[in-house]
Amino acid sequence: MNIIVMDRLGLAPQIEEALATVYDPELKPANILDLGLVYEIITKENKQAKIVMTLTAPGCPVAGELMNEVQQKVAAIEGIEEAIVELTFDPPWTKDMMSEEAKLELGFL
């Protein structure tokens, strides 16, 4: 799945780098980008970043931890003053959204 990027600050590469260090503990070693959990990265001129993401399941027991980690890591990027994480289940996540590398790492290929 491709991430929608609307990057007014030119910080999407740094945001993606930060998100690549966030892992769903149930699906390590694949990060949330390779799992296809990140749908949108948006930055605005007011130094705000918004990440629209999903979870592997609506009842994910680590939902709060994952969202907090995403928020903290994005907020720590120089040039960003506020990071907002929005959770969506539309479209619902499926294994088809994973990168080929993640599927291989997790034994889905």
TrEMBL record:
Residues 14-85 form the MIP18 family-like domain. Gene3D superfamilies: Fe-S cluster assembly (FSCA). It comes from the Bacteria. InterPro entries: Fe-S_Maturation_MIP18, FSCA_dom_sf, MIP18-like. Pfam families: FeS_assembly_P (PF01883). This is Iron-sulfur cluster assembly protein. It comes from Sphingobacterium tenebrionis.
